[in-house]
């Protein structure tokens, strides 16, 4: 028997329950890991509340991102052994494979070796954010040195990862936040410019920063009415990348031209072995030299604090990643 965080109905954080579960032996292509820590992602809150892009059979598990140790190796799995420290990334159905728990079976294709000097909290906080930023901006957007890159809602873990990656490649990160309370934090994290969207006009500020040209790339996790505003900040021929729906409202197609509007999902990106290989090498290099050290807003000790962690995620008060360390 192991323990897992389950929900039997959709709703707010209070629907999450820690329960005893019987975990079968890992099947073909699967690993069982002993979870040491897991990170929270917006997708998990949306799945729990019934607003995600798919629904799952109930009761269901939650969680994409964890760090732990391999406990069992399923048939046809190569390259992993019992005792290996690992991290998981998105690329599987959470309702079936969710990692919120003391143990989890996961597809081996969504598991990465974790260097011995990378602790569990870092291992549970880095990979989903950095693969999302890399896939959207580098592989999808072709981010280059000198590009101005607008990163909306930048105090989330993906936004902070995008700032780090833009700086790594010599691009110019322009971070947005709704209120000035988080301006200093974004400057500390390396944003070249910060725009407070409740007080400043996004397109006008970007035009002033870029000499009237606009940004080559705009990364939008908000969607809804924000997207047409974000499109006004794109340079002619630039790209708007919509990868989230934090607003919860329908996202209209921007009418201005010429620009490219594209969407991004991490699951599809990680399903491409070549792109996943390039992402691993890029992010590993940044983790080794400290350029991609994730900012962790708060670490909660024990599964019983998962509800509290979800409440903080929904409050939007955090800057960076929320992590639950699983008690041994």
TrEMBL record:
<protein>
    <submittedName>
        <fullName>Zinc-dependent alcohol dehydrogenase family protein</fullName>
    </submittedName>
</protein>
<dbReference type="InterPro" id="IPR013154">
    <property type="entry name" value="ADH-like_N"/>
</dbReference>
<dbReference type="InterPro" id="IPR020843">
    <property type="entry name" value="ER"/>
</dbReference>
<dbReference type="InterPro" id="IPR036291">
    <property type="entry name" value="NAD(P)-bd_dom_sf"/>
</dbReference>
<feature type="domain" description="Enoyl reductase (ER)">
    <location>
        <begin position="11"/>
        <end position="324"/>
    </location>
</feature>
<dbReference type="Pfam" id="PF08240">
    <property type="entry name" value="ADH_N"/>
</dbReference>
<keyword id="KW-0521">NADP</keyword>
<dbReference type="Pfam" id="PF00107">
    <property type="entry name" value="ADH_zinc_N"/>
</dbReference>
<keyword id="KW-0560">Oxidoreductase</keyword>
<dbReference type="InterPro" id="IPR013149">
    <property type="entry name" value="ADH-like_C"/>
</dbReference>
<dbReference type="InterPro" id="IPR011032">
    <property type="entry name" value="GroES-like_sf"/>
</dbReference>
